[in-house]
Design goal:
- The protein has about 290 residues and is an alpha/beta fold.
- It has eleven helices and ten strands.
- It folds into two domains: about 200 residues, Alpha-Beta Complex (Spore Coat Polysaccharide Biosynthesis Protein SpsA, Chain A), CATH 3.90.550.10; about 80 residues.
- The strands form two sheets. An eight-stranded mixed beta sheet has the order 3-2-1-4-8-6-9-7, sandwiched between helices. Strands 5-10 form a two-stranded antiparallel ribbon.
- The termini are far apart.
């Protein structure tokens, strides 16, 4: 039996309200050469039973249940490790993919076979185009920050994902932001100027965790500027480092004014090791 071209990855944790709709959207895709890998992260509701019912009915669907809760991005990496397809696509268990979503994604990537990564983007053009690494990095940092899309807004060659060791796991909900910048350093990027996913917003999402974003947004960019081969000048890097510090200082100040929670702000500052020198550089950043 030959491997499917596309591995659709669906991580799940207490998504009994939404997962059936998510699975159905994959099943009813116009593109059918796929496998659907569902990895449940120790749900305490009916998520597993719903997913298992679909697994029984369609041999392209495989359900895996974690022995312990891994968390969002470790679970995404586990799902990718189980994939056999040439491309991986994330359809979160509270989202749905459009009927022609997979078809359009594959058609776009086939135009640019040398790229390992495609990302949703409507800033440049109305047809898929290829952006080289240097242009992508420069445009992201100095024009329009377009590398901020989550996993559901991307398509990735599995071998490329493995080559760059998948998602980092230490930046909480900002792991994808570090990952996208890293990807841009090592592969030209296909810009996908069409909608292919329906995103659902609800109270149970990590995006609602403002404190986590507050320090992880600072940390991922701090590390990206120091670690990744961005092909930027020292002057550009210093400017971006100071800009990052200023943004962090502004954001924690706004958070304190909004919540009055000095203890939480102090904890966040300690986590980021944001010191006096950082504060001065942030204040005087131009």
């Amino acid at each position: 039996m030959t491997n499917p071209l596309v591995s659709v990855l669906m991580t799940a944790y207490n998504r009994e309200r939404y997962i059936a709709e998510a699975i159905e959207s994959v099943i009813h895709s116009t593109y059918q050469n796929w496998e659907l890998i569902i990895v449940d992260d120790c749900s305490s509701d009916n998520t597993v039973n719903i997913a298992r019912d679909y697994e029984r009915r369609d041999n392209r669907i495989k359900l895996y249940i974690n022995e312990k809760n891994l968390g969002d991005y470790p679970n995404r990496n586990k799902a990718a490790s189980l994939a056999k397809g040439e491309y991986i696509i994330y359809v979160d268990s509270d989202d749905t993919i459009l009927k022609d979503g997979i078809t359009n994604l594959i058609n776009a990537m086939m135009i640019f076979p040398k790229s390992g990564f495609g990302i949703f983007n409507t800033f440049y053009t109305n047809t898929p185009i290829l952006l080289d690494s240097v242009t992508a990095i420069n445009d992201h940092f100095f024009k329009t920050p377009f590398l901020l899309i989550g996993p559901g807004g991307t398509i990735i060659k599995r071998t490329f994902f493995e080559h760059i060791h998948g998602y980092p796991e230490k930046y909480g909900p900002a792991n994808d932001m570090y990952f996208n910048i890293k990807v841009a350093c090592f592969s030209p990027i296909v810009l996908l100027p069409f909608k292919f996913m329906n995103y659902r917003r609800h109270e149970g999402q990590e995006i609602n965790n403002a404190s986590s974003y507050l320090f992880n947004n600072y940390l991922y960019l701090k590390d990206a500027l120091a670690e990744l081969p961005l092909n930027l000048s020292r002057k550009q890097l210093v400017w971006l480092e100071k800009k990052n510090k200023r943004r962090f200082l502004v954001n924690i100040s706004k958070s304190f004014l909004k919540t009055g929670d000095l203890k939480k702000i102090k904890h966040i500052v300690q986590l980021t090791k944001f010191g006096f020198t950082d504060t001065i550089q942030a204040i005087f950043h131009l």
